[in-house]
Amino acid sequence: MAQDDTPIPGERYGRLGRLRPSSAFHSEAVDPEWRKLFSAYVEQGMYRRGVLDQKTRELCAVAALAVLGQHGPLGRHILSAIDYGASREEVMEVLLQMSVYGGFPVTQAALVTYQHTLAEVDQALLETPGAAPRKAPATRRGRQPARAAAPPARGSRARR
Known about the structure:
Blueprint: H1 32-42, H2 54-68, H3 71-83, H4 88-102, H5 104-126
């Protein structure tokens, strides 16, 4: 990631994370007193603990959101993990590991979100003058990581 892509100190998201709208928790429609409590606990509390770096914290969020099937916030945290230095391979590996804890359907759905999110990033990079899309890193064996297949259309029969 280029130096100017890193999150600005005091800001929650980097350039990629800002491609998505803010959390509904920050909406003006949410009770202002509750928003203060939320911000105090999460942003001034949990996110300031020095035990985990922000990259690791974002990868934990990716894992949890994948298993919970929360694909809206999952996309944003995938972007934030990359903003904070996670490789695409690391994010994919976290999602693949969740097959053990959440099962294959949850993992497949999360991989579809991963694909759509990275396609969005690559498109945004193509539209940015002088920027080129980041290629997925090679695996340890020198191959590109596998791509997740889109789920079969409803009513279609998958070949076995």
